[in-house]
Amino acid sequence: MVQAKLDHREAHRAKVLEQQMTAWRHAGQLREYIAAMTERIASIVDGAEAEAAAERLAWATEHVARVDPLDNKLAMPATRDPKADDLKPFLGRWSPYGPERYY
């Protein structure tokens, strides 16, 4: 059970890492789009349209900062104590409910 709990924790950490990488790549794509927005906004001559576009750009920039994991505190992901069913994939043919071999 001890090893199953360790394996569960490591699997959770790996899953979070993969999710963070995906979010980081997405944030990079959004930053590219924001750069293109910035260029486009520079060419807008209508004051009201430029103001609305600048508001959109400011929101988008703040949004990217919120979703990019590298713009936030880096720490180990929080883990909870696994429930018996959470341990099943890590126990092979052993039961998470007791000493029986099969479940």
Helix/strand layout:
Blueprint: H1 2-42, H2 47-67, H3 84-87
Describe this structure in words.
By secondary structure, this protein is mainly α. Helices cover 64% and strands 0% of the residues. The chain has three helices and no strands. It has helices at 2-42, 47-67, 84-87. 1% of the residues are buried. The mean pLDDT is 93.
Pick out its properties.
single chain; 103 residues; mainly alpha; 64% helix; rod-shaped
Brief description of this entry?
The protein is mainly α. Helices cover 64% and strands 0% of the residues. The mean pLDDT is 93.
State the separation between the terminal residues, measured CA to CA: 15 Å
* Sheet of most strands: none
Note poorly predicted spans.
none
How many E strands? 0
Secondary structural class: mainly alpha
Rg from alpha-carbon coordinates = 23 Å
Share of helical residues: 55-70%
**What is the H/E order?**
HHH
Residue fraction in strands: under 5%
The shape is rod-shaped
Number of helices: 3
Average pLDDT over all residues: 93
